[in-house]
Structures are given as structure tokens and as C-alpha cells.
Amino acid sequence: MTKAKKSDKAKKSDKAKKSDKAKKVDKVKKGDKVKVHYKGTLEDGSVFDTSEGGDPLEFEVGSGQIIEGFEKHIVGMKKGEEKDFTVPPEEAYGPHRKDLVGRLAKQQLGKLDVKVGSVLQLETKDGEVFEANVTEVGKDAVTVDLNHPLAGKALNFNVQVVGFKKP
Predict the structure, then answer these.
(1) Could you report the per-residue pLDDT of 16-34, keeping only the tens digit for each?
(2) pTM of the model
(3) Counting CB atoms within 10 angstroms of each CB, which of 55, 94, 127, 133 has the fewest?
């Protein structure tokens, strides 16, 4: 009894199927729960945030948990893939708005010792609490900036997808 041999055409078809399976690699999509290691830098090279030496950042793609521009670049990446990209201010924390910079009389701060770089927690009449960065200290008043510290800045990222789960 002889063994049946596959035709050359059948062998090629099997190879094509295996090749297609090898090519099919899952990519990050909206709704996936993703883990990434990242390093964020500004134009001058200074690091503003990183996961180096710690746990990876975990988030659900499309949930609004992270800035839009970061999320946009993660979609389509594969597990283990590393990528560098820049997020413009419009897709990060927005432009720096001059209308969010103002002055407070020092008497409103009581005995609080403020310096340039101090972060004050202010409260509205409705009880909403927000942070204000002190940018200038004068004799009778301080200048505060209510913009996010990264507003108006392009953010550079180096990201590696550690893993992700489909919903």
C-alpha cells in the first residue's frame, strides 16, 4: 500500500494558509484594554512623565482616560511594538489660554507663603476645587495660571505596547 501524496497545488495552498495565519497579528483597536510603557518628553528633551521603573500604564482605548493624540497613535500597534510620535497641543491639553491667567490679591491668601512655582488649590462658590500655578509674586498680588502645565506644548512620546486584551 502506498501513501497518498499531496499534489503540488495542495502543498502550495497549505503553505499559503500557514503564511496567512502568520501574517494575521492582532492590533490594538478601540475598546481594547491596553498596557504600555512610555516616556514623555518636551521639545527641550526634558521628561515630563514616564512609566520607566514602574508598572505600565493601563487604559481602555476610546474611553477618554488619556489624551486624544496619545490614544490615536496606539491604535493599530501590535504587542511588543515600539513607536516614537509627537502629539500637538490641540490633541493633548489644548492651547495655552491667556484668559485663564489672572491676579489674586495677597490678602485673599491669608498667611499662606507663596512662591513662583507654588500650586494653590482654589475653590469656587459652588465648591469646585481646581489647581492654580503661581507664575509671579508681587508686593500686593500674585499671578496665577489655571491652564494645565502642559497646555500649549507639543508632547513627544516613546511607547511600547506590553500587551492588550480584546473586550
Answers:
(1) 455 445 556 799 999 999 9
(2) 0.76
(3) 127
